[in-house]
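Handout for the seminar on molecular recognition.
Each group receives one record of this type.
Step one: identify the two inputs.
Step two: read the structure output and locate the region that could contact 6-phosphogluconic acid.
Step three: write two sentences on what you found, then compare them with the reference statements printed after the record.
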Amino acid sequence: MIIKTYNTAQETAQAVAREIFVAGTAQGALHIAISGGSTPRMLFEMMSQEPLRGQICWEHIHLYWVDERCVAPDDPQSNYHMTYEALLRYGLIPEAQIYRIRGEADPEAEAVRYTELVRSLLPSREGLPVFDVVLLGIGDDGHTSSIFPHQMSLLETSTPYAVAVSPTGQPRVCMTGGTILNARRIALHAVGAGKREVLSSIAHLSEGSEQYPTTYIARHAPEAELFTDQAL
Ligand code: 6PG
């Protein structure tokens, strides 16, 4: 894993914005899958304001989600809702290029629908869709996407999207390990002292780190980039 360390959470978000969104949209279409949570909220809010707002070629963005909680799109827990409040409400990305996971739908049916949608829009390699970028968060339990330690099998599930269940029992639709690893570029964005220990364990593939789903990604994708404010 390539570790990119910055002084603050703000500087980390700025680096993700510049390297992934500014540079990534300068040459043409960017098919990117984003995660939810509090870390990308800061990123999206920063991108929605100058100077970054004027530096991103918004019309080149095709926006997908890595995962979504199975709740209504206006539910405060929804990853779409967070993204809408932080960024989408400014109307910068063409509506037709925003591919929401329908949290309000039946989870199994939505995992199938979204898998078919992604397959129809993206190139394929070894039977799996190829995103330009998959932007992942990391939980303090080492989960990524909505692949939690109690559901490691989702790392090797063959379908690009599947139904996961969070530790609190909340169903989610999430991208599985094979499709994450199939992306042209994998970026992980995680900040905060509370994550330093888990991030260090994953980044250095320490003994015991195999319990974390993110370690699987780190092991199989040495070129994956971790953007963080923590010295690991
Ligand atoms: C979700 C996210 C999840 C997130 C991590 C980190 O739906 O919860 O996609 O995978 O990336 O939980 O969340 P924070 O950024 O809030 O720490």
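Reference statements: The longest strand covers residues 30-34. The two ends are 12 Å apart (CA to CA).
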